[in-house]
Design goal:
The complex is a heterodimer. By secondary structure, chain A is of the alpha/beta class. In chain A, 50% of the residues lie in helices and 10% in strands. Chain A contains 13 helices and eight strands. Chain A has an eight-stranded parallel sheet with strand order 7-6-5-4-3-2-1-8. In chain A, helix 2 crosses helix 11, helix 3 packs antiparallel against helix 13 and helix 4 packs parallel to helix 5. Chain A is globular. A seven-stranded mixed sheet of chain B has the order 14-15-16-13-12-17-18, with helices on both faces. In chain B, strands 9-8-7-10-11-19 form a six-stranded mixed sheet, sandwiched between helices. Chain B folds into two domains: 267 residues, Aldehyde Dehydrogenase, Chain A, domain 1; 180 residues, Aldehyde Dehydrogenase, Chain A, domain 2. Helix content of chain B is 40%, strand content 18%. In chain B, helix 3 packs antiparallel against helix 5 and helix 4 crosses helix 5. By secondary structure, chain B is an alpha/beta fold. Classes of the chains: A alpha/beta, B alpha/beta. Chains A and B meet through helix 2, helix 3, helix 11 and helix 12 of A and helix 1, helix 11 and helix 12 of B.
Chain lengths: 314, 482
């Protein structure tokens, strides 16, 4: 593995693609927040709204990440993932179910051949405070259990200490342990605090081999915000400009309303364009978003809001 | 990257029925709407559809005389004697009424001028109301504005405003004049009279003493009659540099005071250490805001050579996402060019640019079949000696040059007869201070662009005019100080 890593870094250095991360572009706080709020001014109506809501449903990583999770709870969640609201008819499923490694096998079995992916949070989620070999072991266990995607956390402490190489190597090592599984790298932006640091961590993650960059664990407040997500989308765009390689994005936590999800999609559409407008390249990490979207879809269809009691809470 | 779907949103039109536009408008003189002595009317149109929306009275010399006389009488009999705190009550009332009828104002502004409803709703109308609020606050505090000195009003102010921000410019002109105790004869632009006439309705409802504000409509001849009127004490003009020069010649040798806010060809400067994505956004807002019909528009972009390719690519991608079309749609970013004449001017410059050998890039958006529209445009491969870099185009057209050193870009930025505004984008504070002291323009924005606030003075160097509007400085233009 070390050999692989060294070769990779060597190749990047030779091609001149591996930047000095202390020179990651700066972000102007006022400017980025103003730009992010501009997306919320778009007025999304009629068929654009319905299509947007269905797309958002299809991009959800339906999540349960609790110490009290049981096999039964996960099975119920998986059933919900496959049958969001059968009354509506013709709805897409969510993109994935996101669970702890210990629940991967249960989820995999429950989802069968539905096409819904199983994502597992690994690497001593959510704090990431464990030695690297434990993180690798955690990742490999989840992959062996059948996880299609791994959501790892970066070592924020090391990042704040300026140990960018440590963070980079760790991500590259976890990527190696993922084999065929796609790797989502959680920056935990609520602990990075500044936009400059979010940008720098995004760059490190992408160059180290992330398939996705993801805002948050959902365990820290603030979780995903529109400006933070915009910083990351712009990092993805710059990476794409430079390397021609697409990276996917996952804002997670704090997105529980359909309207906000539509704002995120407007932002995605205007920053990265329509090639990113599908669940291969964008996800929402959320648990309660689905029901709000369903409620809005029923409202579009019937003209009236229904009671929350009509929507299952699995 | 592909952005077609970002532009293809379902229509989200603002409702026209939320505002009433009368089929015909008269002149607002001495607190009443009166028919013009000329008996003539002209049509005002919606530039997005080319449909006629109302008939507007055309004032002649007799109408101007009547308006000035009314203003003089109101000045002598009531307004100049009224205590500041009483004047303030009227101005506050106007401010509140503009706010209350904000939706109506923004709809009319967009129908008559072609600007996107998002801009008239979020910028023009609220900022206009803020100007009234701000200057209402000064009316009874003039002794603090000019400590240990005595400020007295000038008399009758003749105010001539442009078509790019019709209501906002009316507010910029009327609010400080009233706060300082002057009376007003205001002429809105020929193509965009409707919001000023709506404001006249509010002024009538607000029970402002008759004659304190008179609003008369017409073309250049009406403006000339105001400028040349012997009983006008002050001219406040916003518009083109050519007309500004005519006004200066006309009032030379008279006792009339003047403030002129004229054209511009602002430099927007991006250094390699700038937050590039926000800088690009600032460039977009700087040149495409209000279809580029902005005197302080950042129409000359200077990019440090090392980041030029990156900035250009980002600019082009951002331009692809701009929605050009029906100004009444809430999602429209770029609306209609204000008039056929202005569209012709812009197209003339596009041709000149191509003839000069510059490379033109336009976004791929479709334009509506009817109305006056122009794609957002940028020119590269240009020099200081190109006409498109030198002359004010007043449309959505940006020229881009590169530079290597600070001194070079300062020299190039100042190499223009204009000096209204400029913008600097860098992460380095010392560089900002260096440039702001050396750029010869009335406003220098750092890491932002096109930001306005009633508290902040605005005005030009060189051929961009003189005098300041807004803030404490804006009061000076309307008083004699002893």
């Amino acid at each position: 593995m070390l050999h692989w890593l060294q070769t990779k870094i060597f190749k990047m250095a030779v091609n001149g693609t591996l930047p000095d991360f202390s020179f990651s572009p700066h972000v102007d706080q006022v400017g980025i927040e103003e730009r992010a709020s501009r997306f919320t001014k778009r007025s999304i109506k009629n068929e654009t709204k319905v299509n947007g809501l269905k797309l958002a449903l299809n991009m959800i990583d339906l999540t349960t990440l609790e110490g009290k999770d049981t096999d039964g709870k996960v099975k119920q969640l998986c059933y919900k993932a496959m049958h969001l609201h059968d009354v509506y008819g013709g709805l897409p499923t969510v993109a994935a179910v996101c669970v702890y490694p210990s629940m991967v096998r249960v989820a995999k079995q429950a989802l069968g051949n539905s096409g819904i992916k199983v994502a597992a949070v690994a690497t001593a989620f959510p704090s990431g405070q464990a030695p690297r070999d434990v993180k690798i072991r955690d990742t490999k266990f989840a992959v062996d259990e059948g996880a299609d995607e791994i959501d790892m956390v970066i070592s924020r402490g090391k990042f704040h200490q300026g140990e960018y190489n440590f963070v980079f190597d760790e991500i590259a090592a976890v990527k190696e342990a993922c084999s065929a599984a796609r790797l989502k790298v959680i920056l935990e932006t609520g602990e990075l605090v500044t936009y400059d640091k979010v940008r720098r961590a995004s760059d490190i993650a992408m160059y180290a081999g992330a398939d996705f960059i993801k805002t948050s664990t959902g365990k820290i407040s603030p979780a995903a915000t529109m400006p933070v997500t915009l910083v990351m989308l712009e990092a993805i765009r710059d990476f794409y400009y430079k390397t021609g390689k697409k990276i996917a994005m996952k804002p997670a936590g704090g997105i529980s309303k359909a309207k906000l999800a539509l704002h995120y999609l407007v932002m995605l559409n205007e920053v990265l364009g329509e090639e990113w407008m599908n669940n291969e390249w964008f996800r929402f990490g959320a648990s309660s978003l689905a029901n709000d979207i369903l409620m809005q879809l029923m409202k579009q269809k019937t003209g009236v809001y229904q009671s929350p009691d009509y929507f299952s809470i699995d | 990257m592909k952005f077609d779907s970002a532009r293809e949103l379902a229509p989200a039109p603002e409702s026209k029925s939320a505002a009433t536009i009368k089929p015909q408008y008269e002149l607002f003189i001495n607190g009443k709407f009166e028919k013009p002595a000329s008996k003539k009317y002209y049509h005002t149109i919606n530039p997005a559809t080319e449909e006629r929306i109302s008939s507007i009275a055309e004032s002649n010399q007799a109408d101007v005389d009547r308006a000035v006389k009314a203003a003089r009488q109101a000045y002598e009999k009531t307004w100049k004697k009224m205590p500041g705190k009483e004047r303030a009550k009227y101005i506050f009332r106007i401010a509140r009424m503009v706010q209350e009828r904000a939706r109506e104002f923004s709809i009319v502004e967009t129908l008559n001028g072609g600007k996107p409803i998002r801009e008239s709703r979020d910028f023009d109308v609220p900022t206009a109301a803020n100007h009234f609020f701000y200057y209402a606050g000064w009316a009874d505090k003039l002794e603090y504005a000019f400590p240990n000195r005595q400020a007295s009003p000038l008399g009758v102010a003749g105010q001539i405003i442009p078509w790019n921000f019709p209501l906002l410019m009316a507010a910029w002109k009327i609010a400080p004049a009233l706060a300082t105790g002057n009376t007003v004869v205001l002429k809105p632009a020929e193509t965009t009279p409707l919001t000023a006439l709506k404001l006249a309705e509010i002024i009538q409802e607000a029970d402002l003493p008759p004659g304190v504000v008179n609003i008369i409509t017409g073309a250049g001849a009406t403006g000339a009659a105001i400028v040349n009127h012997p009983d006008v004490n002050k001219i406040a003009f916003t518009g083109s540099t050519d007309v500004g020069k005519i006004i200066q010649r006309a009032i030379a040798g008279t006792s009339k005071k003047a403030t002129l806010e004229l054209g511009g060809k602002a430099a927007n400067i991006i250094f390699d250490d700038a937050p590039l994505d926000q800088a690009v956004e600032g460039v977009i807002n700087g040149i495409f805001f209000n279809q580029g019909h902005v005197c302080c528009a950042g129409s000359r972009l200077y990019v440090q050579e090392s980041v030029f390719d990156q900035v250009l690519r980002k600019l082009k991608d951002r331009m692809e996402t701009l929605i050009v079309g029906d100004p009444m749609d809430k999602n429209t970013d770029i609306g209609a060019i204000n008039s056929k004449a202005q569209l012709d001017t812009i197209n003339k410059y596009l041709k000149i640019g191509l003839q000069e050998g510059a490379d033109m890039y336009q976004s791929s958006c479709k334009l509506p079949g009817k109305g006056f529209f122009c794609r957002p445009t940028l020119f590269t491969n240009v020099a200081q000696s190109n006409r498109i870099t030198q002359e004010e185009i007043f449309g959505p057209v940006l020229t881009i040059q590169t530079f290597r050193t600070d001194d070079e870009v300062i020299a190039k930025a100042n190499n223009t007869p204009y000096g209204l505004s400029s913008g600097v984008w860098t992460d380095k504070g010392s560089k900002i201070f260096n440039l702001t002291t050396k750029l010869r323009s009335g406003v220098v924005w750092a890491n932002t662009f096109n930001k306005f606030d009633p508290v902040s003075p605005f005005g030009g160097y060189k051929e961009s005019g003189y005098g300041r509007e807004g803030g404490l400085h804006g009061l000076y233009a309307y008083v004699n100080v002893k």
